[in-house]
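The record is kept unedited without comment:

——
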Amino acid sequence: MRASDETLRELMYANPEAIDPEEHIIAVYSVEGPHPLQRIAEEIAIECSTGTWTPVGYETLEVRGKYGAKILRIMGSGGSGFVEIAYNASNYDPEIGGIANLLSDIAGNLFDMNIVDKVKLVDIRLPSHWARAHPGPKFGIEGVRGLAGAEGGRPLIGTIMKPNLGLDTKAYAKLAYETALGGLDFIKDDEALVNPKYCPLFDRLSAVMEALDRAREETGKKVLYALNITHRADGILELADRAIEGGANHLMVCVTYAGYGAIQALAEDPSINVPIHVHRCGHGAFTRDPKHGIESALMSKLARMCGADELHVGSKTGKFVFDALDARKCITAMRGPLHGFKRTLPVIAAGVSPVNLRENLEVAGRDALFLAGGGVHGHPDGSTAGARAMMQAAEALVKGISLEEAAKSHRELARALEWGGRPSA
């Protein structure tokens, strides 16, 4: 028997205490629109579960009651506030479909609905069995520290190769060698660089790893190198396998466009035995508007679940928009308790230099990787000096020594402070 619209709506509400968190996926949205919050909440619940714009014959009381979304809380006034909605976890299979399927529903069509002007998915709470169907980081903070030889609680220091594009393989490897002589922990490709004809992916890998081996012979320091293998879904595992066969000790993927599934596939493959460095370039399309899109902390949580060993956060006093509270939420999502997963290493990058390293340490603490691109390669005495200046700054700050005092006995740091190395707003 076809149910009336009013009867179906009555099934949309539930007492939060009556909802089993192990059988439901609970989402929190902030909303803003020209209609009362109750109506907005109802339309989201309908659209994001069993219903459509009108009652249909097969959406029976039984279907709506069992599989339809349940509105738990409405907080706010007028058309502005927060809505908490519970979704039956059995609507989604974590093994087939997974996060891609889940977000396609509960963070899909609602962004296009006429009934709201702004809607932001703030958080998702998952049942433990659903979350644990994902691998989490293989290495995490402790594992990456071990690979880098940085177990002492100090911050990890690295660089992004600059210029982003335009260097041929020989010049790229030469720059990697010069930079590694500065003693830092980590070098990575820029997110823009994957496989240009003048610097092919596997030629670059071979040349860079050979350059880093030469540098290690001189310094005694192993440097990790994250090769950018961002690629389409049907080829990323093959790229990863070839990279590891070629000596790669790190892999990098841009998650916003490669997708959470790409990270998960790499993390679940037993042959991928190196950390996964995850860049979030493009996330601002979803996160930057404070009232519309998806919270960056939630994106961080999902990336950690899928296997991100390292994940970008942004940087204070850098060249991009930065909000300290948002950054701390992201860092909590990476390092806080989460279904027993290993902790993801926050990556602080975008305008980092010796000059502003202290400010970024105050935000992220020592359990983070600080990457300086221009802050290393823009040093007036070159990339080796730039890398040394970053390491000198980190060492001084960990010991509680001011940069000005440390610069008296470290020429590279002194030159960096003279240069400035602080991007303009």
In short: The chain is about 40% helix and 15% strand. The chain has two domains: 5-131, 140-419. The first strand starts at residue 24 and ends at 32.
